[in-house]
Amino acid sequence: MAAAATGTHGHGEQIPPGKPMSTEQHILDKGAEMLQSLTPIKQMNQHVCTFALYNHDMNRQIETHHYVTRVNQDFLQCAVYDSDNSNACLIGVEYIVSDRIFESLPKEEQKLWHSHAYEIKSGLWVNPRVPEMVVKKDLENFAKSYGKFWCTWQTDRGDKLPVGPPSLMMSPQAVNLGMVKPELIQKRDDRYNMSTDAIKRTRLEIAEPEWINPEADYWKQHGKCFEMHVEDVEMKKIAPFP
Asked: Are 141 and 205 in contact (CB under 8 A)?
């Protein structure tokens, strides 16, 4: 019996327990890939690297890699990984909406979302290896957008499997509690051979949103967070067939 793989690999990802991939499984997967369309995955057309903070504990900050599918001009969906390595862990999902869509949401729903203006203006949100001039128009739109990010696998605390309920994540903000730790930014700058400060200076002309809805970034206004818990409830059974 093969030994279970444990520990970390690459840029901080966790290896789940389990047997190594067999040659037979590799061949099977390659054959399936050739025969199937995998259409939803092929719609991912951007890689965004940024940072996120746990809503219930903002001392926990992580680098995130979003693989973005643009459904339309007002709605995007992102598969979120903990690195851009081939063996990265899928740690969650983020939905991104335009300000127009966000304003149509109920206030209770808006509390679960965060604004992106600071992420964009501060240079924290980047498209690795893509020139700024290529993504400038997109960045202008993203600066007015809002996101809802659920983390389902907390690899930053060493979890080898996605255990427990999902955690709501927040966007960095220009206030002390919500600012990203400098060492995290420097680590990313070194890896991609870039300067977040220099990127920030190139974005001075990107307009600030005229208004950021205060229901977003709820913790800034109220010092409160949202934490998910699992509880037993009565099951809704299927009604008897006539």
From this structure: no
